[in-house]
Amino acid sequence: QVQLVESGGGLVQPGGSLTLSCVMTGNIFRTNIWGWYRQAPGKERELVADITRGGTSEYEESVKGRSLIWHDDANDTIYLQMNGLQPEDTAIYYCNARHVTASHENYWGQGTQVTVSS
């Protein structure tokens, strides 16, 4: 079991920035890739960014260049910094931890709401 607790969401004005945090507890060794997904109303959940234990990261095209994902080994926390936020970034953001090959090792947080609006 792996538990994920997200924080850092909220209301942000267009052009603003925020940093999301995901604290992992439990059997973290059962996972080797961590990331952030988001789901907007009427849309499917999509990958925003993820990072492997080896430090390889990838980003969704619309956030590439203005976002950064990293992992803090000291406190088992995954961070996502997003800059230049726009209304289309509005969604529920979910933290995920999984194993790249062991599909049963797949864990989700409850989500944190990000709303970008004036």
Description:
With 118 residues, the protein is mainly beta. 0% of the residues lie in helices and 53% in strands. It is built from no helices and 11 strands. It has strands spanning 2-7, 10-12, 18-26, 33-39, 46-52, 57-59, 67-72, 77-82, 91-98, 106-108, 112-116. Strands 2, 4, 5, 6, 9, 10 and 11 form a 7-stranded mixed beta sheet that branches. Strands 1-3-8-7 form a 4-stranded antiparallel beta sheet, with no helix packed on it. The model has no long low-confidence stretch (mean pLDDT 97).
Kindly report how far apart the N and C termini lie.
40 Å
Structural class label: mainly beta
Number of helices: 0
Radius of gyration: 14 Å
Taken from the alpha-carbon principal axes, the silhouette is globular
Stretches where pLDDT is under 50 for at least 5 consecutive residues are none
Helix content: under 10%
- In total, the number of strands is 11
Provide the β-strand percentage band: over 45%
Topology pattern, helix = H, strand = E? EEEEEEEEEEE
Largest sheet: 7 strands, mixed
Q: Whole-number average pLDDT? A: 97
Keywords:
single chain, 118 residues, mainly beta, 0% helix, 53% strand
List strands and helices in order, with pairings:
Blueprint: E1 2-7, E2 10-12, E3 18-26, E4 33-39, E5 46-52, E6 57-59, E7 67-72, E8 77-82, E9 91-98, E10 106-108, E11 112-116
Parallel strand pairs: 2-11
Antiparallel strand pairs: 1-3, 3-8, 4-5, 4-9, 5-6, 7-8, 9-10, 9-11
